[in-house]
Specification:
21% strand; 133 residues; 4 strands; 42% helix; alpha+beta; 4-stranded antiparallel β-sheet
Length: 133
């Protein structure tokens, strides 16, 4: 089934110049980048996107980090796009992510783990609205 999902390359991926390689991984498996925008995440977008983490010990650091530098926001589509993107990204903790996954190859620490991706179709709809209106 063709789906749309949201992915965001975080400030560490942009600063370390991994944009092209990561996008290429999505395209090589047949996914389509429908929409792409490079820019800063506003405080309002960050708090809306990570609302489920509010009150957790890492929340303030997460908001500070995601608003600290440019990101690449994308709408990606294709067959089972949510699941395919999640598999390509690898485990949230880069130390647990398999080699060959985006986080396994480019991530170093949990706090700067290269990429965010929607975990469901419902999250994708909500996140696309937050970042693209």
């Amino acid at each position: 089934m063709t789906e749309r999902t949201f992915c965001m390359l975080k400030p560490d991926a942009v600063a370390n110049r991994h944009i092209g390689e990561i996008i290429g991984r999505f395209e090589r498996v047949g996914l389509v980048v429908e929409r792409l925008e490079m820019g800063m995440v506003s405080q309002d977008q960050a708090t809306a996107n990570y609302a489920e983490h509010e009150g957790k010990p890492f929340y303030d650091g997460l908001i500070s980090y995601i608003t600290s530098g440019p990101v690449v926001k994308m709408v990606i589509s294709g067959t089972d796009a949510v699941q395919v993107c999640r598999k390509l990204m690898g485990a949230t903790n880069p130390l647990e992510a398999a080699p060959g996954t985006i986080r396994g190859d480019f991530g170093l620490v949990m706090d700067a783990n290269v990429i965010h991706g929607s975990d469901s179709l419902e999250s994708a709809e909500r996140e696309i609205a937050i970042f693209f209106g």
